[in-house]
Amino acid sequence: MPFDMALVSAALVALIAGATRGFSGFGGALIFVPLVSAVFGPKVAAPTLLVIDTALTLPFVASALRACIWRQVAPLAVGAVVAVPFGVMVLRHVDALTLRWALAGLSVVLLGILVSGWRHSGRHGLPTTLAIGALAGTLGGAAQMSGPPVVAYWLGSGQPSSLVRANLFGFFALVTLASGTAYVANGLMTLEVGRLSLVLGPAYALGLYAGSRAFRGASDRHFRLAAYWIIACAAFLSLPLFDGLFGR
């Protein structure tokens, strides 16, 4: 593992990703996985984030599980859990560069949907809800990026930011269990993942703390604007064009 400027850059990415996750309840993977993948590859970056995020967000999950609305979370989570193994298969077999371009493109599409002002009634049928969950699960297994489809779904319903954030933490808790099981089964939890988790974990923890404190004073409008910027910046910076910033 290269202990050089690339690792310092990865620690900075972890700090920003943690702050984003702490503030909005999602977005950490949108920043962490594409940029850290520029140096260590998706097969290391995605499991590393799962280890770090799982260990450090437990206090947030405990309170979110009490605040989220399970009738909204459960159908999406079921679809996601079923699809996670397919996402892991994508991670294992799809070319890393191709995967990163695809993830960046998807982020742009979802951002366009949000910015367009699209709204739904929040009463989609079960098949549609399961399909959205399945898309999220596929992205979660492939790159720990299950958030964007679910964020677009819940923000599109016009729900308050506090509820969206709580639902996201509850949703991610269930999807993380499925992803972690699939990663172990496919041999992706390596010594390199463990070492990188120990190095980047403190920066991510500091970001989580700062982001959660910032959320306390945020309005619904600020939350939505932050969500848009998170997706936009992640899509832009995740492009392989920026690999040179990480020493590659």
Automatic annotation (TrEMBL):
<feature type="transmembrane region" description="Helical">
    <location>
        <begin position="168"/>
        <end position="189"/>
    </location>
</feature>
<dbReference type="InterPro" id="IPR002781">
    <property type="entry name" value="TM_pro_TauE-like"/>
</dbReference>
<keyword id="KW-1003">Cell membrane</keyword>
<feature type="transmembrane region" description="Helical">
    <location>
        <begin position="196"/>
        <end position="215"/>
    </location>
</feature>
<feature type="transmembrane region" description="Helical">
    <location>
        <begin position="227"/>
        <end position="246"/>
    </location>
</feature>
<protein>
    <recommendedName>
        <fullName>Probable membrane transporter protein</fullName>
    </recommendedName>
</protein>
<feature type="transmembrane region" description="Helical">
    <location>
        <begin position="130"/>
        <end position="156"/>
    </location>
</feature>
<keyword id="KW-0813">Transport</keyword>
<feature type="transmembrane region" description="Helical">
    <location>
        <begin position="73"/>
        <end position="91"/>
    </location>
</feature>
<dbReference type="Pfam" id="PF01925">
    <property type="entry name" value="TauE"/>
</dbReference>
<feature type="transmembrane region" description="Helical">
    <location>
        <begin position="97"/>
        <end position="118"/>
    </location>
</feature>
<comment type="similarity">
    <text>Belongs to the 4-toluene sulfonate uptake permease (TSUP) (TC 2.A.102) family.</text>
</comment>
<dbReference type="InterPro" id="IPR052017">
    <property type="entry name" value="TSUP"/>
</dbReference>
<feature type="transmembrane region" description="Helical">
    <location>
        <begin position="46"/>
        <end position="66"/>
    </location>
</feature>
<keyword id="KW-0472">Membrane</keyword>
<dbReference type="GO" id="GO:0005886">
    <property type="term" value="C:plasma membrane"/>
</dbReference>
<keyword id="KW-0812">Transmembrane</keyword>
<keyword id="KW-1133">Transmembrane helix</keyword>
